[in-house]
Amino acid sequence: DAGVIQSPRHEVTEMGQEVTLRCKPISGHNSLFWYRQTMMRGLELLIYFNNNVPIDDSGMPEDRFSAKMPNASFSTLKIQPSEPRDSAVYFCASSLGGRNNEQFFGPGTRLTVL
Amino acid sequence: AQSVTQPDIHITVSEGASLELRCNYSYGATPYLFWYVQSPGQGLQLLLKYFSGDTLVQGIKGFEAEFKRSQSSFNLRKPSVHWSDAAEYFCAVYWDNFNKFYFGSGTKLNVKP
After folding, report:
1. Lowest mean pLDDT: which of A66-70, A97-101, B16-20?
2. A103 and chain B in contact, CB less than 8 A
3. B59 part of contact set with chain A, CB < 8 Å
């Protein structure tokens, strides 16, 4: 298996633009997580899906952020409109089973909002 | 309140020396415990995990960790560090009743030649 796939790996955009980050989890995994990593705040869980259903979105910072999982093999994290403070590395992770199982992380998307 | 603490932000050790990275958690219930490693520009990779049973767990790359309930700790150790171990290490904790992962703030390991 190729592991968790994220695209793009790097994204540079201007403030106010819409940004869409994509994730393909490991085949057969039924849990998917979106994280944000910054120097100031470390690694933060944004949202957690189980069987394509959002279970916990309490980490989503504000309404500008939205996430979808239309099927078991694809998820998106959208920021609209983007702001400079959204600059971070965004990781997607997947696991088989619930949250207490090992999470496999993708390589991340480094987002820079100018 | 539940939390995970990695008290050391940066650690520098010489190649070949032993290593111990500290992780403490708050809250009384026994959690599921994990250590992840993040190499520069990469995602996190699981080193080892503890769910139950033997409190000394072995992981990949020669790492081990010991769960000490009395100290609420899950410290990561390696007897002899290699230059390729330079990375950031994250402790993570999961409690059933909170149904949530908590990551520590990470410890950056630098290895001197």
Report:
1. A97-101
2. yes
3. no
Contact with chain A for residue B43, Cβ under 8 A: yes
Q: Are B94 and B101 in contact (CB under 8 A)?
A: yes
Angle at alpha carbon of residue A82, lines to A63 and A76, rounded to 5°: 70
The residue type of A98 is G
Q: Which residue of A has its CA nearest to B51?
A: A100
Tokens of A53: 């259903």
Please give the residue of chain A at the shortest CA–CA distance from B37: A105
Say what the pLDDT of residue A100 is.
Answer: 66
Q: Which residue has the higher pLDDT, B54 or B79?
A: B79
Is the separation of the CB atoms in B5 and B25 below 8 Å? yes
| Range with top average pLDDT, A56-60, B68-72, B77-81, B95-99 | B77-81
CA dihedral A81, A69, A8, A24 (to 10 degrees): 170
